[in-house]
């Protein structure tokens, strides 16, 4: 009697087309909503286009104009300041809050006030802090009550306006970073900690020898997300200064928005979008590669 049971290859072939049918809608959706707009943006970066008529091919002129514009270079510097500030302030303070509260009874309630601002949108945070930092705003009035009348122009003078916006972002982001670090701390096995304490390790020594090495995988994720988010900073700047005064506090994302939707320079705006995408991808890849190399001792 002949055995008609299909082999492994035949069974795989049997389910291949139904499987492709299930994943095809998702692939099509991603292609239509992500890859086609990306391709169109790349093509527009080589054209002059104001949203009316047909795009005119001009090659690399948009990129040449972009790098010759001192205002664009200022946006690049502001974006780099955002990257550095976002890594130092919200990530650093978030780690500190987690270390101070993770092993305390009722630590969840101590972290809760830091987490609440994360529920707000970037524009909402911008409106709140604009009320606080505007001329004769809440902060100036509070300082005046203590006799301090010659206050800085928080949202006018550069780079002070960028610094206070980074602090406003930190107010929003500290809580979620503290939550992530707390999860990492709570996942550390108790045995190494108890052994280290029995050997006399505590405070900075315990952190440097036990806690920090075990937090490195999670720290890589937190820092990577912070780098990507800071490179794309838009909403809080739009809500607080709109890139002003003039263009002193613009970031790359805000410059892209203004060139595209305010000045109707769709070709130049697309070139800036492509540049920002490439920078974000390069930063992510280089950072992850460095982390993986460190992990494997390369």
Summarize the structure.
Belongs to the binding-protein-dependent transport system permease family. This protein is an all-alpha fold.
The span between the termini is 59 Å
> Average pLDDT, to the nearest integer?
86
Approximately what portion of the residues adopt beta-strand conformation?
under 5%
CATH architecture classification: Orthogonal Bundle
How helical, in percent, are the residues? over 70%
SS elements, strand count: 2
Query: Unreliable stretches, pLDDT < 50, 5 or more residues?
Result: none
CATH class: Mainly Alpha
The main β sheet shows up as:
2 strands, antiparallel
CATH superfamily: MetI-like
**Tally of separate domains:** 1
Shape: flat
Please tally the helical runs, counting DSSP H or I stretches of 4 or more residues: 12
CATH topology: MetI-like fold
* Biggest sheet strand line-up: 1-2
Q: What is the H/E string? A: HEEHHHHHHHHHHH
Radius of gyration: 25 Å
Protein name: Sugar ABC transporter permease
GO biological process, one term: transmembrane transport
Subcellular location: Cell membrane
Family: Belongs to the binding-protein-dependent transport system permease family.
